[in-house]
Structure formats: structure tokens, C-alpha cells
Amino acid sequence: xxxxxxxxxxxxxxPGYDRRQVLDxxxxxxxxxxxxxxxxxxxxxxxxxxxxxxxxxFASKEQLLAIALETALSRLEAAxxxxxxxxxxxxxxxxxVIRGAVAALTAELPSVxxxxxxxxxxxxxxxxxxxxxxxxxxxxxxxxxxxxxxRIRTDIDAGVATRLIFGxxxxxxxxxxxxxxxxxxxxxxDVLAVALDGLRPRGGRA
Length: 206
What we know:
The chain is an all-alpha fold. It folds into two domains: 4-58, Homeodomain-like (Arc Repressor Mutant, subunit A); 62-197, Tetracycline Repressor, domain 2, CATH 1.10.357.
């Protein structure tokens, strides 16, 4: 007897993949082999689907990339927007951004990893990199404002400080595992402690 669930699975393809599952497998393969080196044929083979079945879910490899990058960028941008909307000091807003960035990275680890490994070889990648640059510029403005408050030392350039902070945040993709022992919330506090303690004014309090 065929159930409604069986019928729905058949529409999604023989193995029963839905769009989210196809996207997850695609992003994992992009991170494993590199986006440019991953062909539609290789993706279809990994999924156990024909190319035509894959195209039933997504129009192109570029669409898969675009959706994954949107997932990463929108989560990061939302954290920044939320921080900037808070009625708080610039330094407190900066802490909120860092917590949000760590939360975004740990929650959307494959998509953020893909974002961080972009080379800018396609219009989709160039657009994503431009959004990332704009994100960094906005954070740099926040660092600069925290310096003006006296909460961040001024002998380090705001842009350099931003790169150092997010260099630490971004390095998490190389070792963090969702099924590992590190709690994401505690990880955010550890990043804050290491990243910001060295940026506090010497002899001052934040």
C-alpha cells in the first residue's frame, strides 16, 4: 500500500531527498572538494540521483552556492543589525556582534565555512565577498566608536583590530564540531575574553 509519505518521497527523488538535504550534501561536497572543482555530475553521483533529478530541486550549481551563501551572510548581518539596534555602548554592541558571529558560525558551520573559502571566481562569489566587506566595514565603525568611548585601546588601528577579532572567530571553522564537547555559548565567551582583553586600554577598565 502506498502512503502519502511514500508519494511525497517519490516526488523528491528515489532516495527521498528534499531540497534542504540536497543543499546540505552540496555544501559539504563544495567544502570537501572546492566549489570550482565540484561538477554537477559529481554532486548527482554523491546523492545517487540523475542530473535531471537534481535539476528538479535546483536550477544550477550556482543556485546552490547562492542559497548557501545567503544563509551564512544573512545570519551574520542579522547579528550585526541586532547589535546596532541595541541601546548600549559601542563596546557592548561589539561584544554582542562577536557573540552573534560565533553563534552564526556554530549554527551554520558548513555555509559559513563555504563563505570563508570563496575565491571570487563568479558573480555570485563576488557579490557575497562584497557583502562580507561591507559587514567588516560596519564592524570597524563599531570598533572605532568603542575607541572613542575609551573602551578599546587607540594605538591599534580599528580595521586591524576588526581583522584580528574575526580572524579568531573565523578560525573556529577549522576545528569546531557540532557533536564535540565545546558548548557554542561558552565558546563565544572564550572568544570574547581572548579577543577583547588584549584590546582594552592599558591600566583602564572596560
